[in-house]
## 1
Amino acid sequence: MKDFYLALGLLVTLLLTSLSGTAQSITLQAEQPYYFSTSFQVDDIEPSWTDRILSAVRMDDQIAGDQWVYPQLIERSEQVYVQVRATDVADNGVERRVTLGQPQQVVVRGIWDGFFGVTYSWTLAPQPEAAATEWTDIGYHFVWGQPTLSYLYRNTVDDPNVTGTLGAVEVTLDYAEIAPAVPQAAPNQAPVLAQIGELTATEGEVTIIILRATDDAAEDELTFSASAELPAFATLTDNGDRTASLRIASGAGDAGAYAGILVTVSDGELSSSETLTLSVAAPVVVGCVPISILPCEEISLPLPVKFSFNGDENGIYDRNGQGIGFTMVDAPSNNLFPATPANHNVPGMQPELLTVVGGKLVVHSTKGIHYQKPPASSENNSQVNALGVRHRGTRYVLCSFG
């Protein structure tokens, strides 16, 4: 039987009754807390269920306008959470997960400072003594004069999309009147993923970043995961000790921004996450520009030149970061195909068009013009990957396509 009653909105369906069913109100005294307790249980929710307010208490002072404090249930990813809000007080974002099928008690504490403010805090795990209870701050209401608690609201609106019960709704100056007889276990809270921030890496280099998470429950086993937006050259490994290793091993041609990477840590029930962008930069070349990424003293080879194309040779690299043996490329006088070189310092080198495989070097050529001396026009000598070596100060272009 659906017997859970929740209002559509506090200011829409206010059915007010005075405190304790009488005309009595409570006048707050300086530094004396009052406690506003609501007992409830949620058994199940329908997919169409939305946020609902449980109860509310109104505070009056000499300033016109209603000042309410109220617990409400909210839905997040098919889970139910409780949050306490106050009129005109900014949302602090704190939510506590509700365990379905179990009795719950949310208690709000308000304290007037004797001057101009009433501060609020709340808990979903009240203890037998107020001092032993962990309170979460909400904020404060500005007041003028001595405030009073005038009205108590208990929800009486039927909602067929949720099953449960709404129990006692009470306001008192004596915490013992609403305190549980035995200590209450704190509800499970989501693990906290330590902020990761901006991710940066460089082509051809391996970067390892350690991710960390914490959880108040020492017995919770945390697991890390990453969304499909994580590029193939990056891997996330759960270390099993509340840390994970993000290994980034980008290769030639991987420079760019990879957005929308969602990294999540979960305790099996609750989770927290961060959406990241990985920025991969082209390597900063300090080589023998503009013909090689290698230092000038390393591009000279003795003749005759012979390469095995097994990927273990030095020289410039292919699309997979494997050395191809050739140590230089002749720099084109004009970059046309492609118009933007992979490496601005060595504009004739296009690693994504080179592949070492099976003892062969495969070169995919783009449009280009054979080198002419002197160039016939500014569009001549536009060939990329004109591979070669240097011998005793002389350049030898050994592989050119036109």
## 2
Amino acid sequence: MGVGASAGGLEALRDLMSNLRHTGRMSFVVAQHLSPTHKSMLRTLLERETSLSVIELETGQAPRADAVYITPPNADVEYRAGRLVLFPPEKPLGPKPSINRFFSSLAEELGDASVGIILSGTGADGALGLLAINQKGGLTIVQDPASAKYDAMPKAAQHGMQVDYALPVPAIAELLVSYAQDGTLEPPVREDPATAGLSGQVIELVRARAGFDLGAYKLSTLQRRIRRRMDKARIVDPHDYVAFLGQDANEPAELAREILVSVTEFFRDPLAFEALGVAIQRIVEESPPHKCIRVWNPGCATGEEAYSIAMLFEEAFARTGRSRNYQIFATDVDEQALKRGRLGAFAASAVSSIPRSTGSATSSSRAGTSSPPRRCGIGSSSRCTIWCAIRPSRASTS
């Protein structure tokens, strides 16, 4: 299990360690932001709080149960082929160790068995890594922002996705122990043999009443989201929830929204965008000067892909010395994601994937956020318009 923390993290880590117990099934790796020039006392401080073994992480170690591994200062860690491997930091500036890098490696190696936990901290490190775990069907947990000394990191993780749990630290420890003792790292399943057909009924109700097909999602993922909706509606019996799903006009769409994952980032697939850039260059060179170029970006999520496309057009115009009017129609079934896309404001961590040649034009819009180059903003360029719109769909969202 990966645990990420920054400012205020020591208090949260102590609280977590003091509430954990031996289960023979859990191993923890702590990525706590530390000063790269000072010797860490984290191991000594946490040893006092727990009966688990607290170990200074060394490269090549295979995690063992009932142990807590502390990532050293000025190093990044990845999980590869069953071992923890240390690397020099990818970036000279920024938080170390990188929570994003470690969580992403857990997602890649462990898939739906990966677990990521974000505790108190400033900034947004860990949000993209936790999203990667979510994409693979793993378990995502954040400290309840109201209980965190610094709430920026838990809130950043919640901003881009529906985390599985947002809990005070003692409740996080209780949750993890109960999962381990249940013999699985998935949340306990509420259905018993007598209610085994309810998931199918839920899928059919959501398909019929909201137009979303949830049938392709893993049963464990679906059950987690159903449990969240039951908790919010204060419903205990799964049969009662199925009845509620059939009666409430908004609940089918709300359940579908819990499961939707708006997966995106600027220039997310570099090779694909490189090829797209070549195609856009050709379009710009060959299109008549008076012709408006139109682009449709389906499944745009929070808009990073649409803005990335606009940046490619601007680069092509600069290289050719030609200018064209162009429109980008960005559509998605997730209205909440579209609302964020229309704002055109993104966390500084989100723009880190913009290539340097393009990112040099990135400008700060307000403290803690950044916007794509102003020429790509909605309505901010005389030649570029980006439309973000709901695309009604009754197709599968998987």
## 3
Amino acid sequence: MQTPFFSMVFKAITDLKIKNLISFIICIFVIVSCKSEDDKIETPPVPTRSFSMGFTPWPYAASISAVDDIYSFIGSSADLIALHIDGGVPWPESNIADNFDNYGSDVKNEINSISGRLSSLSHHEVYLAVSPFNGLRNDKALYWNTSTGESLPSPWDTYDIDNSLVISSYSNFIDELIKKINPKYVNFAIEINEFYHNVAADRLKLQTFYMSVYGNLKAKYPNVIFMTSFAMSSPGSIKMQETANLYTHLQNYQDMTGISVYPYAFYSHNDKGDPANLPSNWLSQIISIAPGSNYFIAESGFIGESLSIPAFSLNVTTDQDKQNNFLITLLEEANAINAQGLVWFSAYDFDDLWASSLGDNLSLIWRDTGLKDGSQVPRKSLGSWESWLTRSRQ
């Protein structure tokens, strides 16, 4: 039996325990809340990318197996495929609308092959680039018939870029390609600023051309994103100043600005094989050249081994580490300008193709730009590429 004294003591102890327990619970709650807030502050943001990532199906050798390999590689290591048509236009045949069945055999075989292979890349975005210009970007494109790069037939060899037949034929050609390939993006004038620079006397004719072609295509395909592309060179150069002027006339006749950039070959800074020497605005200069535009890295690359082409006075000392550094820099800079796509032109070095079928100085500039070398061995840059590919699109 408890006495009043012990009852009072027991009650006091009980009250004290309850107060201490409440204080303890409050303290734990505060600590957990503070820790949760700290965790929220310290958790780094998940890295993202603004652009889709892809390659052209340029093969490393002149064989079906090489073509199979590159399409398989694009399927697993990209979310975009870039189709680059720069070998001519079927001018007489495409002057008639809906006339694909009468195109030359090489044209039909190539386009039908591409169309068939795209069925295995149904989740990839498709970027289509076509050139109305020849390889030197100083005249309209050559003839594509039974092979690429054929001489222009008469009277097409006499027509200027603004000729109404040139405009209608080229518009019809791209129309056929869109129907066959169903691209999201179409570059209808690869490196248009090169023609603008090289053929200054035809700048007004060029303006007529791109205004008319864009008008024809956009009216029929309002949901396709049409662009032209600029070949980039050193910031502040005459060519970049001219390109800025071109953009003031061109900006209303494209939906996006494409960028072609190979600094190791076409910039003028010292020691071009080391990306640490790039000008600070080597890529971001596009913002002042084409202000207010959306951007797309239409083609880029960097050699993974040293290059010497005496005919072009081009000597570049580099290695795969520096190639990897350039790729990382390109990815970061493309993200900074909110680029919508990024194309690394050649996934593989194409030593075998160059030795067996090309052998020219011009293609040698790009021969060793692969993320895999001439023996199909991955370079360090492939790891960086695949790491970025895992990022989600923002």
## 4
Amino acid sequence: MDGPIHSPEQLLMDASFLEWVSGRASLEVQNRWNAWLNASPIHREMYQEALELLQAGRFGDSRCPDVEQEWRRLQARLDRVEESRDARAGRRGRSRSSLRLRNRHPWPVYGLAVFMVLAALALVRVYLLDRQPSMEWTVVETRLGEKKKIHLPDGTVIHLNARSTLHYPKQWTQDTPRWVRLRGEAFFQVRADSRGYQRQFRVQTADGIITVHGTRFDVWAYPEGTRVVLEEGRVEVRTTRSPGVRAFLRPGEKVFFQGNSRRLVVERTNLQTYLTWWKPELKFDHTPFAEIVDRLERTYGVKIVVEDDRLLSRTLSGSIENTGLPTIIQALSRVLQAPVDYRDTHIVFRKGPNRF
């Protein structure tokens, strides 16, 4: 990183930036780019745009030349040329001339050649950047209490929860990145066989990127952070602001993180709590009532008041018919033995018989 950065394209032409986002940078480089990212909202916006270009345009696969590597190769080639000339001169009995040639090493000429090569490499990078096709997106949104089922051309099925937004490519070819952007919650059933499309499937949230290879998993992405729960297969998770921070999940595991997380903590979890919201029945297995309240508030946009705080720590096991908010509330009221009142936009669980 030399001098100020003014555009996402400038980021993509910086070798240290590409190393950083690919997780191959040294600790010093990581710290430098992390400091740059956190210094300004404008930096974070440029980073996000560069990341989108990198994903959508497959910059990682465009085989952009490595300038430093090409420099070393050119130097080695020039040295071999000079050694060859010296050897030929020696065979002709011109060792003095050979020595004179070595002392008169024409580096100004070679330097000009190197400059031309580096300039050409830079132009190649810009050319590759300009050649990346613009991505058009299909946007799917859900309202309060609404769920949608989405079928992608590659065979992936996505269940989008209420109050959520999903972006995915409008046109699909064998070069189309299997890449979606999510705000809210969705359950993904990704085919292992990509049907001629790109092998990797990625989900991007405000906090990071989830990379999968044929799997079933849930992504919850809200302002508080992103949670990933894996039912089947294998996924890789990495954060937005520190791409070197990553974790791999196995079935039955979850991880919660934010864009600036320095460490990802993977935990074993009970899948029923997180993976049945889109099914005909909600299933709970020692699920705290507080978690159920939070999910209902987010899904239906209501405010739920629990007068007895002790109810929030109660855990519930079993299933409830998932046909709408009134059905769920009445079932919870019966199980908890807590009468329910509807007050304007509030649902109130009143204190019931003292059974604690």
